[in-house]
Specification:
The protein is α/β, with parallel strands linked by helices and 254 residues long. α5 runs antiparallel to α6 (184-198). The protein is built from 9 helices and 14 strands. It has a domain at 3-170 and 204-211: 4-Layer Sandwich (Metallo-beta-lactamase, Chain A). It is globular.
């Protein structure tokens, strides 16, 4: 099992560094910038062997070219049609990554149409689809696509570590507490996250078990979330996707 470390970049991005102790191989997920990756690996005496990309947005891909210049023509895995530097296009299914074994690729459109997630127990790297306490905006996909993408992630084991790409947790929890102000697990989690950030430590990775307890976007059928949505729309639909869409619209304008 690889060692997994978040590398902070830009204002709130995390580049996830995976180091496999038995093979001494290293890969990074969504390199928004290169200098932080190069500095971190150099300090650890390591060489980068591969790059994984979840989707085409610039703050997940801008470091690729510089990393290729520094480390040479290492393989870049991801959605090939939308990211020019991808040398190994991937689709949903199980794929072998040299030095890391088999990784399960999930197609999870919604935030973007090309969005992929990478699962190798106990970690899932989900880019901008699932955040701690929230989910990604729908820049290209539909509410139905995003809801079903989140359902794919929810089907993973509860102990799965959720490695998303941004430190959005505290702002997400402010909204989540507006939706579910009496959720004690959510209140406790917010207090812990505040302590983490005060110490300049990440709130991530989260776990799926935690997200199922505190994330309103994974709780569209819970009594308290439905009650809050009904206060905004007394004619609230019984359709779970329409509930999700209303919740996402609320968050967009929060």
């Amino acid at each position: 099992m690889p060692n997994v470390t978040p590398i902070a970049a830009l204002s709130d991005n995390y580049i996830w560094w995976l180091h496999h102790p038995s093979t001494q191989k290293n890969l990074v997920v969504d390199p928004s910038t290169a200098p932080e990756v190069i500095a971190t690996l150099t300090q650890a005496g390591q060489h980068l062997d591969a790059i994984l990309i979840t989707h085409h947005h610039w703050d997940h891909t801008s470091g690729i070219s510089e990393l290729l210049e520094h480390y040479g023509p290492i393989p870049v895995y991801g959605p090939g049609a939308s990211v020019a530097e991808v040398s190994h296009p991937l689709c949903a299914g199980t794929h072998a990554i040299a030095g890391f074994g088999d990784i399960t690729v999930l197609a999870i459109p919604g935030h973007t149409l090309d969005h992929l997630a990478y699962y190798q127990a106990p970690y899932v790297f989900c880019g901008d689809t699932l955040f701690s306490g929230g989910c990604g905006r729908l820049f290209e996909g539909t509410p139905a696509q995003m809801y079903h993408s989140l359902a794919q992630l929810m089907a993973l084991p509860d102990e799965t570590y959720v490695c998303c790409a941004h430190e959005y947790t505290l702002s997400n929890l402010t909204f989540a507490l507006t939706v579910e102000p009496q959720n004690h697990a959510l209140q406790n989690y917010q207090a812990w996250c505040q302590q983490q950030r005060q110490r300049q430590l990440p709130t991530l990775p989260s776990t799926l078990a935690k997200e199922k307890a505190i994330n309103p976007f994974l709780r569209c059928d819970s009594v308290d979330v439905v009650s809050s949505l009904q206060q905004r729309d007394p004619k609230l639909s019984q359709d779970i996707v329409e509930r999700f869409a209303l919740l996402r619209q609320w968050k967009d304008n929060f």
